[in-house]
Amino acid sequence: MASTSEIRNGLCIEYNNDIFKVIEFLHVKPGKGAAFVRTKLKSLTNGKVLDNTFPSGHKIDVVRVERRTFQFLYEDEVGLNFMDTETYEQTFLDKKLIENSRFLKEGMNVEILFHADKDMPLTVDLPSTVEMLVTYTEPGVKGDTATNSLKPATIETGAEVRVPLFVNQDDVIRIDTTTGDYIERVKQ
């Protein structure tokens, strides 16, 4: 058992017979009354996000988790196939465990969060940015770098992202996996 003073971003706790990950928290000490901790929790089983307030000093159940590096192999009718980079064992996971599976490409290394006691996968964390090849977009025109206008582009995984007008087909771009936003064009 831990107390609310140990709450931090990324901490996994058991609450209401479910496992939640702390997305953000704020320790509040009002001028009048007792202190409390306001949290935003994301369920690792169904993906729902809920706001919750714990009184200061409240006991919480911390779930012990392990991060393991896996390599994404391929997707089939069973699910997504991953290989442990240390033991070379293969694992099949459901697509709903990955928040932005549209940015998952073959050979990519990801971190899988496991419940340490039950050896059960909880969630899959993609790298914060990925580099993808633009397979289709309208051609860019010289001088289109002056405005902040965006156009749709299809990347190598089949996902569609919004890119600046100067990005052309066969360009490699860097994308933020949490928001799905274009960051920059990668020089080759």
What this model shows, in words?
The structure is a single chain. This protein has no helices and 16 strands. 0% of the residues lie in helices and 53% in strands. It is mainly beta. It has strands at residues 2-3, 12-15, 18-28, 36-43, 49-55, 59-62, 65-75, 80-84, 90-93, 109-115, 120-125, 129-137, 150-155, 160-164, 172-176, 182-186. The model has no long low-confidence stretch (mean pLDDT 88).
Provide key terms for this protein.
188 residues; mainly beta; SH3 type barrels; OB fold (Dihydrolipoamide Acetyltransferase, E2P); 3 domains; six-stranded antiparallel sheet; five-stranded antiparallel sheet
CATH class of the largest domain: Mainly Beta
Beginning-to-end CA distance, first to last residue = 51 Å
What's the number of extended β-strand segments? Answer: 16
* Unreliably modeled segments: none
Overall shape: flat
Strand order of the largest sheet: 1-6-2-3-4-5
Q: What do we call the CATH topology of the largest domain?
A: SH3 type barrels
Q: What is the overall number of helices?
A: 0
> For this entry, what is the oligomeric state of its chains?
single chain
Q: If classified by CATH, what would the architecture of the largest domain be? A: Roll
Overall mean pLDDT: 88
What is the H/E order?
A: EEEEEEEEEEEEEEEE
Task: Give the radius of gyration.
Answer: 21 Å
